[in-house]
BMP family ABC transporter substrate-binding protein (Actinomadura montaniterrae), 353 residues
Amino acid sequence: MRRGLKITLVTVTGAALTLGGASACGGKKAGGDSGDDNGKKTLKVGLAFDIGGRGDQSFNDSAAAGLTKAEKDLHVTTKEISAQPDEPDSDKESRLRLLASTGYNPVIGVGFSYTASLLKVAKAFPNTKFFVVDADGCKVEGANVAGSCFSEEQGSFLVGAAAALKSKTGKIGFIGGVDVPLIQKFFAGYQAGAKKAKPGITVLPPKYLTEPPNFNGFKDTGLGNEAAKGQLDKGADVIYHAAGGAGIGVIKTVGAAGKWAIGVDSDQYNQPAVADVKTHILTSMVKHVDLSVFNFVESVANNQFKAGTVQYNLQNDGVGYATSGGNVDDIKAKLDDLKAQIVAGKITVPTKP
């Protein structure tokens, strides 16, 4: 169940910061927040979303799915707080401090942009366990800090191969939310996979919706819509997006044009927001953020927490590609062969374009 929650924080400078659009979810045992019927303390998990929050039908929703599974399977209680577009890093820090100071342990930050703030707050709360999804540089520090990172380039390699094999015009496109190294990894893998599958394919120059510090490229569907139109006009008949919530605009525009769209993070074929064009979703590069969130919460619940980062890749099925809709059934054997070659070390996927 979700219910509206408006939280006002006070920053270290004394300025008031209002975080709208936050939500809280209860997954309580019979004994409430403090314990269950056997006197065992119930875990209280705090999660701070990236821009777009729950409902982006992509990256954040994947994290939310992991938290929901933890509520169901581990009987934890949770609180969620959403980020705001173009917010300063101090907002992220205040959000994490709020969760930790009100008894939430562990605390999760969703997205690489939380890394610096989370590491800072973790030092102030040494008895609280912290976790960052997409740890910047795949590095964290501190005895109470864990993180996950993903080989996005490997999953993107496979959907790039799919794009090339399915293209009829010989031109494919890529739209990234924000021009940062993480999103460049998606393009690097996509381009390499396309060239491996069909050396003569034309991969259009990538289009990034915004530049840092503007991260609205992960949320504004209108930006995704316009970028998709631009690449369609250049002849692309398959377009892959790595743009979070803004990617919904990409998928809807590409689908309306009768061309192939490739989703990201979640299996977007099954997302309600694109139900009217889902038959034009070729596949999605699936990034199991949900698995990383659940695994972390489970480790804390079972007193098996380990500091440091965990890498999710093709070998441990942390990334992959979706088959919903059956649109890649005819090339699945080729994609799985490429996957096997990557896992075996016969193909090294680049992380930079």
In short: The mean pLDDT is 89. The two ends are 42 Å apart (CA to CA). The chain has two domains: 3-150+289-312, 152-287+323-343. The CA atoms of residues 333 and 339 lie 10 Å apart.
